[in-house]
Amino acid sequence: MSVSVMVPTLLLPLTDGQKKVEAQGETVRHIIDHLDSRYPGIKARLVHQDEVHRFVNIYVNDDDIRFAAGLATSVAPGAKLTVLPAVAGG
Amino acid sequence: MSRLLDDAGLSWRSGPCLPAWQSLSAALQRQGDCLGLRHADGAPDGPALQLMHPDLQPLQTRFTGLPALPLELSTEFTLQAACGLMSVHGRASGRLQALGVNYLATLNAALAWQGSLAAAVGQLRGGRFHEVALQPAAGALLSIGQYLAGATAPEDPEHLLPGADDALARPPFLSADGVLFELETLDSHPWRQFWNALGVSDAIAGKAWQRFLLRYARAVAPMPAECLDALAGLPLARIQAIAAECGVALVPVRDAAQRQGDSNYTASAASPWQIRRGVAAPAPHRAAPVRLPLEGIRVLESCRRIQGPWPGTCCRCSVPK
């Protein structure tokens, strides 16, 4: 099954400049693995030791996976997965 | 190359600029003092900042208006209104609202100093940079560039006009004993712990986190009612204790008079810059700059994450004539 992945600006060099790519998988972990097979290096920018990097946020539709099941969060067909770097300050 | 800021040879003066905008002149003065520069007598014949040094040709940054907003009508508030700052600031309060400080005066003074000093460096590198043009309105638009980009994006442009969200359902937060305060964390884990400790579910804490993360990108962060209700039921001391346990920073909102009473206020109000002589760089073997005074210079910058892109943006945007 296919889901849409919204890619942040910082990772566009890894996706040949594509802001939106398609990926396959039933969980966030599977989707990231599939993305890495197509765009090598992207997994290392998102995940370290099976945890999402501290200042990277991943949403399935509007839900932050850290407040669900993390990388094991299930993803329904047609869902949108958004990667969003943390921003703070003033 | 001459080290402009190392000796007392660099002086400046400004014209009787912007009679409707004295705050800009005050900001130029304040920032010139912070740089340790000497203010010279006399004045240019128009709204301009002039730099003078024995090693420099005449150099000035001239302020210019727009046909739709002449310089004579450019005040802090007309610029905030015309350039959209009041709209962006009003996203949170629910109505068009000015920033309560002389934000654009301070910003444009900094841009004027930056442009002038860049042109001076360009001269010392052999370039011909004698006049910098600065539109205060352009400075205003620069300051809200990220919001303009969001509102005019070709895909899914943001529609965040004042009044679109509940003006009361947003930070700063309010405790049961009536204290306004701010929360801050860059990490979702303590955020989740904090709200869980207050009895808020993961699902709601997650929604709040997403909106909180986008607060600085969108200038508004509507919070779920469950979060606000949980805080409104507890005194500040209890909320502070929970925040401390969870690793979330909590800062009560204070007014200017309270801040001025702090023991470190005077020191913090001194010059924000420290300039030290570094190791002498090898003489460059480059041609004199032509298009931009700093072209070819590589800048090493270390800063916090969100502040990082800003100096780079300014460097690219300071384009002397």
From TrEMBL, chain A:
Pfam families registered for this protein in UniProt: ThiS (PF02597)
Domain of life: Bacteria
Source organism of this protein record: Pseudomonas bharatica CSV86
Lineage of producing organism: Bacteria, Pseudomonadati, Pseudomonadota, Gammaproteobacteria, Pseudomonadales
Name the record gives this protein: MoaD/ThiS family protein
